[in-house]
Design goal:
Blueprint: H1 2-24, E1 37-43, E2 51-59, H2 64-72, E3 80-88, E4 112-118, E5 124-128
Parallel strand pairs: 2-3
Antiparallel strand pairs: 1-2, 3-4, 4-5
Length: 133
């Protein structure tokens, strides 16, 4: 009888321990090599319509896969869009994000390393050097 009790207690306890380990071992925003730093975030105050988020991020390295993974971890709403712009920390970069088609001062476009966008349908796009002509 004690053997059955051990199984009824041991199996769920092991399951809970494994679940907690997987939960707390997931990568977070601080687990990247490139030292990402959020400079500014713009979010409109519209909670019932399209929610627009624009992030300005600086990085010390241009590892494209890390940029894409980092941007994918940013908050997202099904009723809006999320745009993440990456700039190298040693180059000039905008200090303020804004809404609309142009999300920062156009004089910084030449320094933009990448742009990640997620639209209201959940479709993502990642563009390297998005403003290069």
């Amino acid at each position: 009888m004690k053997s059955k009790q051990r199984w009824f207690v041991g199996v769920p306890a092991a399951f809970i321990i494994v679940m907690l380990w997987y939960t707390f071992s997931q990568p977070g925003l601080n687990d990247f090599i490139s030292n990402f730093e959020e400079v500014d975030l713009y979010r409109n105050q519209n909670n019932t319509g399209p929610v627009e988020r624009v992030y300005i991020i600086t990085t010390t390295d241009s590892i494209w896969n890390e940029m894409k993974r980092y941007a994918g971890l940013m908050p997202y709403s099904k009723l809006g869009t999320t745009s993440v712009y990456f700039f190298h920390k040693d180059n000039p970069y905008p200090k303020q994000a804004q809404s609309g088609k142009v999300n920062f001062d156009t004089k910084y476009e030449q320094y933009c390393l990448a742009r990640y966008q997620k639209n209201s349908f959940g479709a993502t796009s990642f563009t390297m050097f998005p403003f290069k002509k």
